[in-house]
């Protein structure tokens, strides 16, 4: 097999203002001295990736800005092809749901906790590395200097995020110019862009190396991507089950059991079966919920419970209920703030607009739900980490399902906070998609959960009510008895009140720690 003498080649697809991918084959700078295989030598080139107008591959090299990452491209093409399904369908992070992006989460979880035993450390690193192999562009670098870019599914979008981890041996003057970024792009359009470049680049390699088995295998694998017969495998990734087809088939049969007897239209809306293309399963928020994407420990009974709840909640047109949720504040107004700051500001605004405290000295969350015509009911889910599930959509009226098995218990204070938290999802998360199905727990998007927690605290404990009650109590705000009295008057837990006062700056870190410790001792929960 011999290399052909060819000119430079490049292909760019997409709009850099949204999402674009460019790949080039260039003259090999190593010439005939290159010891690489013919496939590698002929694929020497570069790639660039733009999101929202920013080139994530741009870097500084010896004082000069270089617009693309250069190396042998065939391994990168093979990586994109082999990991197509997880890149566009797997959302669930490995190990822990931390950080606001995949890049941040992977940086935070790279080192195992010091409490792990040596054997557990190996398991931790193995799980981390396996996920990294599927989603980090650097998994394909094989010696090249690639940007710290991750791509994964995020709801109905593709999340593209960057970190700032320095590669071992990388020159000090070599710096990528777009670290710590996070973007959400249109899933189907991004898939079409990447696939177009894959197709064109592989055909160019075949033109250069017509007898190469490696190139032939690459082309065959790229062609295999473009088929809606891959839908089941992609649904398994979407459900967080990866290649565990046995568990996916069990859950799929449970979904079929729960949806037996419903119309084909309702079935398609819940499962997202009408949103399958040859490149991706776009699915639905309900499918991700029912198939277990938001809880790694979902079981068959949970599937039947959730699917049945969605069937009962289905309506032909949910717009009369959805219109009630359209309050006249825009979350975009505060998008530059942290999740906690956003939630706190929006929570108080919502409390004012809904007049939730009316003439009372406390906020009545049930009256707010009634005013918005949002029903709520109890369901039983095996995952005790899940507080509740909220749904809405064109054919799903806004509704909250509270988990009777949650580890937080069933006290009045817990129920009130849970409902206020779910109200945040229903009011604020409409801008993410036309439909919502979120299980509030440790695997829900961190940004969304932090904002909802802050919203709930501000909604139930607005500053004007705190100020009024403090004036009546006339006590020291750092005294546990004063805080207990405040909590009792506002019908919230003492723990929530301590957190709220801390977030408002009324208590410092030491105050919060000492008050929580005293509260736990007094409650019999230990120090």
UniProtKB/TrEMBL annotation:
It holds the Pfam family Peptidase_M78. Residues 411-501 form the IrrE N-terminal-like domain. InterPro entries: IrrE_HExxH (IPR010359), Rad_response_metalloprotease (IPR052345). Signal peptide: none annotated. This is IrrE N-terminal-like domain-containing protein. It comes from Streptomyces lomondensis.
């Amino acid at each position: 097999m011999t290399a052909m003498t060819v000119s430079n080649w490049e292909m760019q697809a997409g709009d850099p203002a949204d999402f674009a991918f460019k790949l080039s084959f260039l003259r090999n700078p190593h010439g005939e001295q290159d010891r690489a295989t013919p496939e590698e030598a002929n694929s020497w080139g570069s790639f660039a990736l733009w999101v929202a107008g920013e080139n994530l591959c741009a870097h500084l090299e010896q004082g000069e800005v270089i617009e693309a990452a250069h190396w042998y491209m065939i391994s990168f093409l093979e990586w994109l092809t082999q990991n197509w399904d997880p890149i566009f369908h797997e959302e669930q992070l490995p190990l822990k749901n931390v950080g606001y992006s995949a890049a941040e989460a992977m940086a935070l979880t790279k080192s195992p906790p010091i409490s792990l035993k040596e054997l557990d450390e190996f398991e931790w690193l193995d799980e981390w590395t396996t996920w990294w192999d599927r989603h980090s562009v650097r998994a394909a670098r094989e010696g090249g200097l690639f940007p710290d870019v991750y791509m994964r599914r995020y709801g109905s979008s593709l999340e593209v995020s960057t970190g700032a981890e320095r590669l071992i041996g990388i020159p000090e003057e070599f710096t990528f110019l777009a670290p710590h970024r996070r973007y959400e792009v249109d899933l189907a359009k991004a898939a079409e862009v990447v696939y177009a470049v894959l197709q064109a680049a592989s055909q160019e390699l075949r033109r250069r190396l017509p007898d190469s088995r490696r190139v032939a295998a690459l082309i065959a694998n790229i062609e295999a991507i473009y088929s809606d017969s891959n839908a089941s495998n992609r649904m398994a990734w979407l459900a967080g089950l990866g290649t565990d087809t046995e568990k996916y088939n069990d859950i799929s049969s449970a979904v079929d059991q729960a949806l037996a007897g419903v119309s084909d239209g309702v079935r398609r809306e819940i499962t997202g079966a009408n949103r399958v293309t040859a490149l991706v399963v776009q699915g639905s928020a309900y499918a991700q919920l029912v198939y277990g994407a938001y809880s790694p420990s979902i079981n068959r009974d949970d599937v039947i419970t959730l699917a049945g709840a969605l069937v009962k909640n289905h309506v032909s047109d949910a717009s009369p209920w959805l219109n009630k949720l359209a309050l006249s504040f825009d979350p975009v107004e505060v998008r530059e703030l942290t999740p906690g700051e956003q939630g706190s500001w929006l929570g108080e605004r919502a409390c004012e607009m809904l007049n939730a405290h009316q003439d009372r000295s406390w906020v009545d969350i049930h009256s707010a739900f009634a005013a918005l015509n949002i029903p709520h009911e109890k369901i039983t889910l095996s995952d005790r980490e899940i507080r509740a599930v909220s749904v809405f959509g064109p054919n799903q009226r806004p509704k909250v399902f509270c988990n009777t098995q949650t580890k937080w218990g069933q006290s009045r204070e817990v129920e009130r906070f849970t409902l206020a938290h779910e109200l945040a999802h229903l009011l604020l998360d409409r801008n993410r998609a036309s439909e919502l199905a979120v299980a509030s727990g440790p695997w829900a998007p961190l940004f969304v959960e932090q904002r909802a927690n802050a919203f709930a605290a501000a909604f139930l404990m607005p500053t004007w009510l705190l100020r009024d009650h403090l004036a009546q109590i006339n006590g020291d705000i750092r005294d546990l008895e004063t805080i207990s009295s405040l909590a009792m008057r506002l019908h919230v837990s003492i723990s929530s009140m301590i957190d709220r006062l801390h977030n408002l700056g009324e208590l410092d870190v030491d105050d919060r720690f000492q008050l929580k410790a005293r509260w736990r001792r007094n409650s019999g929960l230990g120090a």
